[in-house]
């Protein structure tokens, strides 16, 4: 895993975690490396990350393949942090509507809490 630097953005976990199990050790390490890249300001694209405009601007999902699962880590890139909205195992092609709704609600609540505004 890449070491943290003083100017890296913090990760703010609103929901979910990445641990073994249920993640395999390899998938957990891959997720950690991808999250560290985000903290350092790197922009990730397919196949590792996909925009999620249905949740909000600057929202994306990390895509981590595991031996028996397709993990998704929904995150919001904010000027002050990388905000983790959800971590789930994807079992269908489309993201469940319930995940989209709860991520929108978590993002709105977070933005109200930290800045007194609605999400961008």
What does this structure look like?
The chain has 120 residues and is an alpha+beta fold. The chain has one domain: YaeB-like fold. It is 28% helix and 25% strand. It contains two helices and five strands; from the N terminus they run E-H-E-E-E-E-H. It has helices at 25-39, 97-115; strands at 11-13, 49-51, 59-65, 70-77, 82-90. It has a five-stranded mixed beta sheet with strand order 1-5-4-3-2, with helices on both faces. A hairpin with a 4-residue loop joins strand 3 (59-65) and strand 4.
Outline the fold blueprint:
Layout lengths: L10 E3 L11 H15 L9 E3 L7 E7 L4 E8 L4 E9 L6 H19 L5
Parallel strand pairs: 1-5
Antiparallel strand pairs: 2-3, 3-4, 4-5
Helical content (DSSP H or I, runs of 4+)? 25-40%
Low-pLDDT windows of residues? none
Radius of gyration: 14 Å
Distance between the termini: 31 Å
Provide a short characterization of the protein structure:
The chain has 120 residues and is of the alpha+beta class. Helix content is 28%, strand content 25%.
What are the salient characteristics of this protein?
single chain, 120 residues, alpha+beta, YaeB-like fold, five-stranded mixed beta sheet, 2 helices, 5 strands, 28% helix, 25% strand, globular
